[in-house]
Structures are given as C-alpha cells and as structure tokens.
What does this fold into?
Amino acid sequence: MEETGIPMLVVLEGEAAGQRWPLREDQVLIGRGLDCDIILPERQISRHHARIERTADGRYLLHDLGSKNGTWVNGEEVREVPRLLQDGDEIQFALCVKMTFVGSDATLPLGGEGPVRWTGREVVPPLSPAQYRLLTALLDARGQVVSREEIVRTVWPDEDVRGVSEQAIDALVRRLRERLAELDPQHEYIVTVRGHGFRLENR
It folds into this structure.
C-alpha cells in the first residue's frame, strides 16, 4: 500500500527498476556503499554518490557528493549547487539509474475539499490537493484549453510560473489521467493540445 503524504523516489531504469523509496528522513544518502540509505549496485555509481536533504520549510534538495560519473535532474547536471526537487523531476545517477521524484503533495489524500465523484462513482482513494485543483481548473474551462501557466497559477499559487518544471506539470496531468481511467478506462478525458496546454473532453 502506497504511503500518503511522504515524497518518494521511484526507479524507472536500472537494476532496481520499479522500486520505491519513501523519503522519511531529513537526509538520505544514495550510492553504492553498504552504509547508504539507498544502495544502487551499479559499478558506475560512486560509493557516496548523492544526498537528498529536507529543508526547514519541507522542501527537498539534491546534492551531488563529487561523484565520478555525475548526477542530472531533467537533463541538467547537478554540480556544486544543490538542486531543489519538484514533483515529476527526472533524476539520473551516472546516466545508468533513472528515477522520478514524487512530491508529498502528489501522495497526500484530499483534505477539506470533500469527496469527488466521477461518472457517478466516488474517487477512492481521494485525489491529492494538486489533482483536485487541476481537475477543477479543467472543469471550470468548460472544454476550453487551460494553458500550462494557468495550471501553475491554480495548482501552485505560491510558486513563480518559471519555477515549476514542464516535468512537474506533465507528471500531475498523467496522474490525474490515471485516476480518471480507473473509473472509466474507455475514455480519455484530458486531451493534450500541443503548444497550448490541456482541455477536458467530458462526455
């Protein structure tokens, strides 16, 4: 059963593909060494390769620990300056292990907004707050395209539009699509309009 409200790393490629590591501690050491919190056995991985640190305000920073073969986030190498992680970020260690960062908001059940019903059935488990805000924005648009900028302003109102990655938006849309498909797998409700954004194709 997936833990809620706890961010996690999900391995996409590598020997541990499919494995999930909840980030419960303030610091998580990643590497080949047996003393690491997350052990990656690939030879290209340094003994102490990287560290994820939880900040005082509950965000997560990725540090490269001077690894031999490098650490990348969304294709950009992490060097001396740590990288602030966002939901949906793609992380590569030594270009041989690929993971995605799933933020706590994406695994947190819906709070005070109340249950959501779709195609006459209640969505269980509840949508996360971010999924709920995205679905509300798409419903309010009544079939019109909702731009990525509008999604950022609605879902992450405290963030700068330029500070939310394309990967974070795509990951959120993908997860909401999956949740709706659980109730109606025959219909794809969220349509991507390339170069513009997304719209809801309700029946």
